[in-house]
Amino acid sequence: MTPVAIVGLGCICALGADYQQCLQSLFAGQRRFGLPSRFPAACEVSQPVFEVPDSFLQHDSVPGNLSRTCRMAMVATWEALDHGNLDARTLARHRVGVCLGSNIGVTSGYAVAQNDTDAFLLPRDRFLATNPTHLLADTLDLSGPQQTVANACTAGSDAIGVASAWIDQGICDAVIAGGTDELTPRVYFGFKSLFINDEKPCRPFDRDRRGLNLGEGAAVFVLASTDFCQAHGIVPKGYILGYGSTADADHFTQPRADGKGLRLALDESLTSAGLAPDAICFINAHGTGTPDNDRVESHVLNKMFPGRPFLSTKGYTGHTLGAAGPIEAALTLGCLDRGRLPVTAGFETPDADLPAQPVAEPTMIQGTVALSQNLAFGGSNAVLVIGKQEEPGCV
Fold first, then answer.
1. Catalytic residue selected from 83, 94, 286, 299
2. Which residue among the candidates 13, 134, 319, 335 is catalytic per the annotation?
């Protein structure tokens, strides 16, 4: 795979209203969690979530009558375009597509009508009006392909992988890619019914971990070809160097116990990037805090990347579902740029049954390539190989 340039990115989640604020909060060790504030969560046991404050969504170019998922996508997109010094007129002169991961976005609009006229929209029109991919393409008047990926927690990473393939294969000059998902009662109580939520702030890879915390947010990348960058004098902020995707087809919600699907996705990502495992400086693991996920990841990482530092950032963001991959990819690039890793929030007591442990203190790194990986219900595995601005390869 030819390296695909990251020319701009935007991020909004519980960590912050924009990408730089998210990084500042991450390295400051800030965890902003609490009980759901936008819907009743009264029950015998309430579980913390990582919400996006309404103040983060105040933006002159973001209509207030859109679904929350669409509003977060638009906030992240405008930041990504500004980050890349791009505007709609520039994009309109090129083949620009949109590919977003979202599991909640295209369904939430049925319950969030903001005015009387919404109730009279045909189902098709209501669906399109709440589909973040269609919304962005329509708002920016883009002529390229559009795709929404909705395969659970790998949706956003897969969307970036698909977008990179469009550029690598010459289908697009640039693509707006990423993921967005909001926290809704259906999501909150649906996950609660699975008994995989922690009653405390989540503890990835910790001996006493009890499950995940939900979150919400969006991250959007503007990806582009080398020709696009040269035509506009753009210096890339980083690169998508490789991508791997597999499916276990083993269990509805649990990863395959031997980690075979994840190993294959990791192998595929490295092969597509033309890199060996020793080129990887660190791994941003899926790290949900559930017993099964963390056990599988620890064993796979210990076997494929022995001694390599890894972390989970979900202790800062919660599990943002379709937005998880892009948010974590953005934080991965930020760690590469800063040459250091934050602590794995929530990890305190090592689990003797896990052969590899995440970083428990701020850790300096040397190198320019990292991995961001995600696992999902249905057995999906997705891995992105991310390189910083310098020539790819560890130093």
1. 286
2. 319
> Is residue 153 annotated as part of the catalytic site, yes or no?
yes
Joined together, the tokens standing for residue 79 give: 């930041």
DSSP state of 212: B
Q: Which of 153, 172, 202, 281 is catalytic?
A: 153
Active site residue 319: yes
Neighbouring residues of 117: CB distance < 8 A, sequence distance ≥ 6: none
Q: Which domains does the chain have, with CATH numbers?
A: 4-231 (3.40.47.10), 240-388 (3.40.47.10)
Residue type, 176: I
Residue 134 appears among annotated catalytic residues? no
User: pLDDT, tens digit, for every residue of 246-301?
Assistant: 998 877 778 888 999 999 999 999 999 999 999 999 999 999 999 999 999 999 99
Residue keyed to tokens 């690169």: 239
104-161 pLDDT, tens digit each: 865 554 444 444 444 444 455 556 567 899 999 999 999 899 999 999 999 999 999 9
Both tokens of 318, joined, read: 């919660």
Of the candidates 240, 241, 293, which has an alpha carbon nearest to the alpha carbon of residue 262? Answer: 293
Task: State in Å, rounded, how far the first CA of the chain is from the last one.
Answer: 22
Query: How far is CA 45 from each of CA 97, 177, 192, rounded to the nearest angstrom?
Result: 44, 37, 10
